[in-house]
Structures are given as C-alpha cells and as structure tokens.
C-alpha cells in the first residue's frame, strides 16, 4: 500500500517554489536597481534567456531528463538517483532561500521563527517531488508545551522532511559545529541562531548549557536535539544509545522533554539497496516528560534519559509493527530486497541501554555552543 502526495500537497509545493524563486529574485532586483537597472539591461537579459532556451545545451538537457523521468517509473536504481538528485537540489535551493529569509526576518524582528518558515517551506516544496507524504500523530503535544526540549530519532538525511512537518514556531536546533562550514546550509544555520556543539571541548559544558538554558527560559524558546548524536541508517525499528546533552539542558532549564518519533522508513528510502520508492512516513509526537524537581545528578539524568529512550523505543517499535502489517499485505516478501527484509520481520530487540554506554562522550558533557544574545 503506497500513499502518494495529495492534490493539496502539490498546491503547497507549487506555492513554496514560487516563494523560493520570487524572494531571491526580488532581493536581486532591489540590489541591482540603483546601479544598472535600465531598459538595456532588461532587454539584454530577455535576449540572453531566449537565446539560452533555444540553445543546443538546453535541448540536450531536456532530452536527457525526460527519458530518465519516464524510466524512473519502471527501474528502481534510476528512480533512486533521480529522486536523490531532486532532493539534494531542493536542499541547496532551500538553503539559499533560508539565507535570504534569515536576513529579511531578522531585519523585521521575526528571527525566532526563521527555522519554522524554512523547515515548512522545505517540506512543502520537496516532499511531493520525491513522492513522500508525511502524517503527524499527536501534534497537539507540540502546541501545548512551550518552551520545551524536543528530541527526535535520527535515521538519514531524509529526516529534514519530517522536521519540516513538525517543527514549531520559536524553536532553534542544536547541531555539531562541523555543519557551520557547510556551504549555504552552514550560513543559514548561523543566521537562524542554531546552537553549535563542539564535542572536542569538555571544560565549557556546564557554562554553555547554563547559558543556553537561561536563554530558552528568558526568550521562551524551544530547542530541538537528536540525542543519538549520529544517523542510525537502520532498516530495523531501533534506536542508538542516547547521549545526555539534551537531558542536562532540560533539567537545568526545568523544561519538559517532548519526544518525537519518526517511523523507520526503509520502505521509502534505503541507500544501501539504492531504493527511493516514496510513500507515507508516519511521525508521532509523544506526551511531554516532566523535569520538575530533577537535579543534574548522575542518577536523575540517567533515569530521565532511560525514561525518554524507552518511551521512544516503544513508539518506534509500535509504528514498525503497523508498517510491517501494511507491507506484508501489499508487497510479497520476495519483492523486498535483502537489505530491507527486516521490515517484514519482527522489530529487533532494544540495543544496550544508555547506561551501558557511559564511556561514550555525551553532548552535555563534552559540548560548547554559541548562542546569539540578540536573538
């Protein structure tokens, strides 16, 4: 059973791409207007555009893309590379759009909602193009609990789509500092006041999280964190051990934790088997977990980490069982590649508890971050 994007999704996609094109072009026109904007420039641009559209290069590009789009309906590897390319191109376009929006929204005093606008734009403009539809369960938990520390599972780069479907207003994201140097994406994240984590520095952890916690409470800001710290890329409903940075932060700020679980979506996208079939992805927002009265002691943090992880693991396994039933009804096991075969078997047992990974550096114990005091 495959769910395809609805007509409403395609309308949103078209509207989002109109914004993606219109805003940067408008900014370019404003910048050029005082200098060179005259009839000659406009006439030259029109002539150049007409010449390019009639060029052999454009004809060759069109001749290559159209057959690929047709063959993608019948050949999985071609479909994989075509949709992956579409996703990456859209990611780049949205990153550029994000930089423009970040500047504009900061100037009008709406900087706290930059991530919300860009995340929703990316989901609306990209999901229909790659054949993905997202369904969110329990969205009211996000609306009723602000500010909060939001934690979600991390599978692949496709997670950006589910973030776009659930990302609330007034929320920043915590990310590893290396992303700051990624072209376009890094500039957008910097302008949107992301909290960058330098896992090489341990000594600044307490001061950093105290500062972030203070900023969250003072400005009523939420923060989204991937507590696994890296992508799992698993075809089996499971979670990696959690690092404790998010839980130290939630306790210091005395803010609730809101777990967000995205089902294992190897039936939609699986890099090892070169499969990008599209379909429905279900995201479930769980009830908040209170941190009231907890301290930064090892026992309290460990108990909070275990409680959150167990709730998320139970949810992801439940979603896995539901998806398994749907797949077994619509797709015989013989049609599923070996790499994705676990989707038609029972979910794997839970990996070692977070307490067994105590020797791993935790985000909260090894991190330093930068927060813009003006945001």
From TrEMBL:
It is an enzyme of class 2 (transferase). Residues 325-375 are annotated as: Disordered. It catalyses: a 1-acyl-sn-glycero-3-phosphate + an acyl-CoA = a 1,2-diacyl-sn-glycero-3-phosphate + CoA. GO terms for cellular component: endoplasmic reticulum; membrane. InterPro entries: AGP_acyltrans, Plipid/glycerol_acylTrfase. Residues 342-364 have a biased composition (Low complexity). Keywords: Acyltransferase, Lipid biosynthesis, Lipid metabolism, Membrane, Phospholipid biosynthesis, Phospholipid metabolism, Transferase, Transmembrane, Transmembrane helix. Its EC number is 2.3.1.51. It holds the Pfam family Acyltransferase. Residues 148-265 form the Phospholipid/glycerol acyltransferase domain. GO terms for molecular function: 1-acylglycerol-3-phosphate O-acyltransferase activity. One of its GO terms (biological process) is phosphatidic acid biosynthetic process. The chain crosses the membrane at residues 53-75, 87-108. SUPFAM superfamilies: Glycerol-3-phosphate (1)-acyltransferase (SSF69593). The HXXXXD motif is essential for acyltransferase activity and may constitute the binding site for the phosphate moiety of the glycerol-3-phosphate. PANTHER family: 1-ACYL-SN-GLYCEROL-3-PHOSPHATE ACYLTRANSFERASE. Belongs to the 1-acyl-sn-glycerol-3-phosphate acyltransferase family. This is 1-acyl-sn-glycerol-3-phosphate acyltransferase. The lineage of its organism: Eukaryota, Fungi, Dikarya, Basidiomycota, Pucciniomycotina. The gene is SLC1.
